[in-house]
Design a protein that fits this description.
Distance between the termini: 88 Å
Number of helices: 22
Organism: Kitasatospora xanthocidica
Oligomer: single chain
CATH superfamily of the largest domain: Histidine kinase-like ATPase, C-terminal domain
Structural class: alpha+beta
Number of domains: 4
Strand content: 15-25%
Helix content: 40-55%
Protein name: DNA mismatch repair protein
Length: about 625
């Protein structure tokens, strides 16, 4: 019984044990799987057992037991008893996936009121059994019950595929805090997470079998967990067809190890030794986002009209957003602090950070192995704010002279933020230029501009592109357009041909496109092609990123707050654009300033015609 002077009451202790920080039931189950794999099991079986009883015909069957059985080395009596003590780990070293060896009681009590453990080193008939029961703890139980000989129940022996001469069975009952109700629902929600957490170990030959059960009979859907790789490089995998048997991404980026898309950083641990940290990155293959890739057949049951993100594999990728933190071949976390949640393109890149257990303190690995808090806290680290005007090299040297312990992680963060993610995002933007939503938005503007151009043609003298058209032929114009799109703006030949045919068939004389031009100070460039006025928005100019791209991004999945932020950011960028022109005029000598003023006024009159073209067209139709 708890003394009236106890610092902590039994009720408070139990509440603290239940609220031990597991993100979900699946994360708690992962702790049990950890123990089996740490014990050198090559097969771990997850059983989710639902009752045969339900209160009414419409009510769903309810899960009443969850168990994890492994064919690992098993535990002797002392180790078994210690394994259920809170805060008393049984593993001194950290070479494997374990952290402190305290996951079994913590994870169990976070989900259930009773956990039973059988472990054996000489056959399941000679198993040792002990347990924890929250009701008994609240009544004053202070010690883990001494293990006693107790054969593994026959029902579990009958269900198991890999029951061996050594192993461990952990059973949860009185499931008061499990998230999901039915067996298959629980397994389905767990499968994605454990497939991601243990993806490397699965590809190395470890099996994690998923078994839904009702009563003591297996239900349909028994299966082995497949790898769920957020870098989408592993095959076979849990990715939907056709990317279940071929990679959906490819390795991407520079390397200092000889492996494409892999950079190695040496980081000093608390023991003074240096250890390697690997940063790996990947990007979607073209056929994941485009229907027109030669030799890559689009699945016949998936409409070609779908946006890439609405395909089965696109939806799968949307559930794997973030940077994967890998420790000892086991994922700790998929850190979403690095993504732009409103941008659907974020699903099409992957990054993982791979570090050894010796760097746990440096990265801030939590006891329950669900996050690396120090590294994650740097997701929004702005080195420029701390640098106070110093260059990156100067700032890094200052941190080194100070002996700042964050320096190794800050260097990794700088690499990810300044080099890796920017390149991934720009390459993704280039990947689908000329297709999809952005092209359709350009076409809407082109139609309105064409109306204004036709009116100008009737009212003013011929423009330069009009004159060039009179002196040339349609074939020459098509060839010049093709060369411009492919050679200057780096569109694929197929995209260039399609854009030209669409434009000419619709009788347009204006084309708007996006292009990269890092050497140009202009935020848009103009080309005068016979019969075609071509305007290329410079994707490397801040005006594009801060104004055009902000407004052109898809709104699917964006919240009202995110949309309001985007509109406010775009409005601010547009106002700065106008002020920059005003400053341009302000800096000119008198005569050029007057010329700039007249140009501004003439452009304003022309802008009125173009922006009012659709309204005028509507009036003509009335």
């Amino acid at each position: 019984m708890t003394s009236k002077y106890s610092i902590v009451t039994s009720d408070l202790t139990i509440k603290a044990l239940q609220d031990s920080g597991y993100k979900s039931t699946a994360h708690a189950i992962a702790e049990l799987i950890d123990n089996g794999l740490e014990a050198k099991a090559d097969l771990v079986e997850l059983f989710v057992v639902e009752s045969t009883d339900r209160p009414s015909h419409r009510a769903r069957y309810r899960v009443e037991k969850i168990a994890v059985l492994d064919n690992g080395t098993g535990m002797d009596p002392e180790t078994l008893r210690q394994s259920l003590r809170f805060g008393a780990g049984t593993r001194a070293d950290r070479k494997g996936i374990g952290r402190f060896g305290v996951g079994l009681p913590n994870s169990s009590i976070s989900q259930c009121d009773r956990v039973d453990v059988w472990s054996w080193t000489n056959g399941p008939q000679n198993a040792l059994h002990t347990y924890l029961d929250l009701k008994e703890i609240s009544q004053g139980l202070e010690e883990v019950p001494e293990p006693k000989l107790d054969a593994v129940p026959d029902e579990w022996q009958a269900l198991s595929e890999g029951l061996g001469t050594t192993g461990t069975l952990v059973q949860w009952t009185a499931l008061e805090r499990v998230q999901w109700r039915g067996a298959e629902t629980t397994i389905a929600n767990t499968e994605s997470l454990i497939g991601r957490i243990y993806r490397r170990l699965i590809t190395q030959g470890k099996r994690i079998k998923l078994v839904p059960v009702r009563g003591w009979a297996q239900l349909p859907g028994v299966r082995d967990t497949r790898p769920n790789d957020p870098l989408y490089l592993m095959t076979p995998s849990a990715t939907p067809y056709p990317f279940d048997s071929k990679p959906m991404f490819r390795a991407h980026g520079a390397s200092n190890t000889g492996q494409i898309g892999e950079e190695r950083f040496m980081v000093k641990g608390v023991d003074g030794q240096e250890y390697p940290v690997y940063v790996r990155s990947s990007i979607a293959v073209h056929s994941a986002r485009r229907t027109d890739i030669a030799g890559e057949a689009w699945p016949p049951n998936v409409p070609t009209s779908l946006k890439p993100g609405d395909t089965p594999w696109g939806k799968h990728a949307s559930r794997n957003l973030g940077i994967s933190l890998i420790r000892a071949d086991r994922e700790l976390d998929l850190d979403t602090g690095w993504i732009n949640s409103y941008d659907p393109r974020e699903r099409w890149w992957g990054v993982e950070i791979d570090f050894p257990p010796a760097l746990d303190e440096v990265f801030g690995v939590t006891n329950n192995k669900q996050s690396a808090t120090i590294f994650s806290s740097l997701a929004h680290f702005n080195w420029r704010e701390e640098a106070a005007g110093l260059s990156w090299d100067e700032f890094r040297e200052a941190l080194r002279e100070e002996g700042n312990p964050r320096l190794p992680l800050i260097e990794i963060v700088y690499h990810i933020r300044e080099k890796l993610l920017g390149k991934l995002r720009s390459d993704l933007e280039d990947q689908t230029q000329g297709t999809g939503t952005s092209r359709k938005r350009h076409e809407v503007v082109e139609v309105q501009a064409e109306t204004a151009v036709q009116r100008r043609r009737a009212e003013t003298r011929p423009s330069l592109t009009d004159q060039l058209a009179e002196e040339s032929t349609p074939e020459v114009s098509k060839q010049l357009q093709y060369e411009s799109l492919v050679e200057t703006h780096h569109y694929s030949p197929a995209d260039a041909q399609r854009i030209i045919e669409e434009t000419m068939s619709q009788g347009k004389h204006v084309r708007l496109l996006t292009s990269r031009n890092p050497d140009s100070p202009a935020f848009f460039n103009v080309e005068y092609i016979p019969g075609m006025l071509q305007v290329a928005l410079n994707m490397d100019h801040p005006v594009y990123n801060d104004l055009i791209a902000v407004l052109d991004r898809d709104i699917d999945g964006a919240s009202r707050e995110e949309l309001a932020e985007r509109l406010a950011a775009a409005a601010g960028a547009f106002k700065l654009l106008l002020i920059s022109w005003a400053r341009f005029e302000d800096e000119q000598p008198e005569k050029p300033r007057e010329r700039a003023k007249r140009m501004r006024q003439d452009w304003g009159r022309l802008a009125s015609e173009f922006l009012g073209a659709s309204d005028a067209d509507d009036e003509d139709d009335e």
